[in-house]
Amino acid sequence: MSDKKETLSIVIPAYNEAGNISRTAQALRRAMETESISAAVYFVDDGSSDGTWEEIQAAAQAWDMVRGLRFSRNFGKEAAIFAGLSAAAGDCCAVMDCDLQHPIEALVRMYRLWEQGFEVIEGIKEDRGRENILYKGMSALFYKLMTAASKLDMSRTSDFKLLDRKAVDAIISLPERNTFFRALSGWVGFKTATVGFQVQEREIGQSKWSTWKLMQYAVTNILSFTTKPLYLVIGAGALFAVLAVIQGIDSIISYVTHQAVEGVTTVILIELIIGSIVMFSLGIIGSYVGKIYEEVKGRHRYVIAGTVGLPRREERPHDAL
Ligand code: UDP
Ligand code: MG
To answer: What ligand is nearest to the CA atom of residue 44?
Structure first.
């Protein structure tokens, strides 16, 4: 383990990335040495089932500025980012993907902006790389909702960012469990700059996101960032109150004018519509109750099973590395 303290900590979540670890570490080392940036790389093994952890250990052997954390199981990319940021010692921290889809040249530009005094440097996708139509459509819908909710333009943002120590400390000290790192860097404020980058092709391995995982991710993020869906429930209630008044008046008129009772179909339809709206509303409210339950339990965001290149795990609590 090296006692050298770095200026830049590079946090890299890695889930089943055995093929990418040494490539990424070597590419970063070359770039950091050419640019004379004192940097350390923090790989966070998010419970991989391939040889990712062995690769991280080998990379730490090869370069003393590689550090590694290993989760006891797959806790997800958000947790991995938080674990890396909590372990990082640098004056600024960058987060990037393990598959080199985030170009190192953009990381260097971010670092130069940090040197000029910017505190939050956001990586902005100039194009979204190759994605299928369904993915593009779904992500467009998700970002529309998130942009409306957070009032930040979310459609081109990514998890590729560089943050000053002050911003990192502000983010890792947040007590909430369900976080959305991408939006939090905007939420903390500070002097912000952006760096555009072209999403590179993933060369080794496959994207780790299944459609189901992405949908869960989208729902969790919407729930953790906005309470707007709850107002939908109030909106639906108000609409139906108005309809009820109109229907009520109509019924009274029919009664007074002694018109024959009719409209069983209408009754069934109204029952069905109201029933589904009530269920839908309960679902929305229930989702928030579920999130409150998760937050109140206050469980660790992740559990660390081992580290390399870092002080011994026993000396640190799981969560506050
Ligand atoms: N990742 C992770 N945990 C997960 C899923 C992904 O740490 O549960 C990491 C992955 O190893 C990679 C980054 O998050 O470094 C982005 O994942 P991926 O390249 O699969 O996503 P995409 O680029 O397709 O959005
Ligand atoms: Mg990728």
So the answer is: 1
